[in-house]
Structure formats: C-alpha cells, structure tokens
Amino acid sequence: MSFVLGVTGGIASGKSTVVDFFKAKGFPIVDGDIVARKVVEPETEGLMALKNTFGQTIIDENGQLDRKKLGSIIFHDEKKRALLNKTLDPFIRGEIQRQTEEAKLSSDLVIVDIPLLYEGNYETMMDKVAVVYVTPEIQLNRLMARNHLNEEEAMERIKSQLSLKKKKERADIIIDNCRSREKTRQQVLDWLQKNKFVS
User: Fold this and answer.
1) Binding residues
2) What is the pTM assigned to this prediction?
3) Least C-beta-crowded within 10 Å: which of 10, 40, 160, 171?
4) How many CB atoms lie within 10 A of CB 64?
5) Which keywords appear in this protein's UniProt record, sorted alphabetically (predicted)?
6) 88 and 62, same structural domain?
C-alpha cells in the first residue's frame, strides 16, 4: 500500500523547498499548482466551465485564459473568488486524484503538494499532512523580500490564506523551516528514515 503525504504551508513558508527535498530522493510529486494550470488549458472542460461562469472576456484571442482579466474580476470580490474555487474544484480535485493513483503504482510514498490543502478540504485524500511552518515575522519578511512588496501588500496576501498557526494545529507532521535549509532537510530525512521510506 502506498502512503500519500500531503504537504502544505503558507505563502513564503518554504513549502517548495521541502517538496524539492522529497523530489531529490526520487519520490513522485503531484503538484496542485501545475494541476490548477493544466485544467484551464485551451479547450479543456475546466476552461469552458470558467467561460460559462465569468463570460467570454476572460478568454484571449488565442483561446487561453486571460489571468489578468480573471484576476481583476475576483481579486477584491470574496463572493466571486469563492465562485471561481467552486467552479474549478471538481476539475482540480479529479486530476489530483488521478495523478495520485497513477503515482501510487510506481512508488510506496507519494507527495501531494497543495498550497491551499486545508482551505480546499483535501486532507481527506491524504494519509497524513505535513505543514511547513515559519513564525509570522519570518513569513512576512521573506514574502516582502521575495515578492518586493511593502508590509501592507504582504499582509494582505498572508491574510487571504488560513494562518500558519491554524495549519500547524491541524498538522500530523510539522516541518520547522525557521532555521537553515540544512536543518529543514534533516527533518525530512529523519521522517523518511523513521517511516522506512529510505534506509
């Protein structure tokens, strides 16, 4: 039986770094962000569903999703953002499920990388969930530095997600990413060894 580990965190918490450590050990990764892009490619059912919900204006002349247009519709509108999530959810969930089942055929451990795992209630699809945690101060400073944002802009993005504190409370496994990259990598290796995925 393959073990499915969901990996999540907050914006700028270092989730991608942690996922890369698993990838370096040869474990298959199901990437929620890649899936979310794939399901709205030209002529997909996902893109048709978005067009039916938000209108033709969100499709550019090449038949691609105009992300800027869609972004301007949903960014400051909570209800429209919820509608977007509701519209795409079945397509994203179905594709994540499909890729996970496929990956299980070739590996005893599958990593499912979903930024909004708890927000989207994906934990029911996982055997365990690992949360990549940093303190609020570190998260804010890293986000400001990484995305060249001022404090207000960075806080707005952080607040649009469930807080890392709440995610940490719900986690089965906590990977503390407050210190060096090497210390974080060691936590991943320790977990893999403890659970006999690597010797």
Assistant:
1) 12-17
2) 0.92
3) 160
4) 13
5) ATP-binding, Coenzyme A biosynthesis, Cytoplasm, Kinase, Nucleotide-binding, Transferase
6) yes
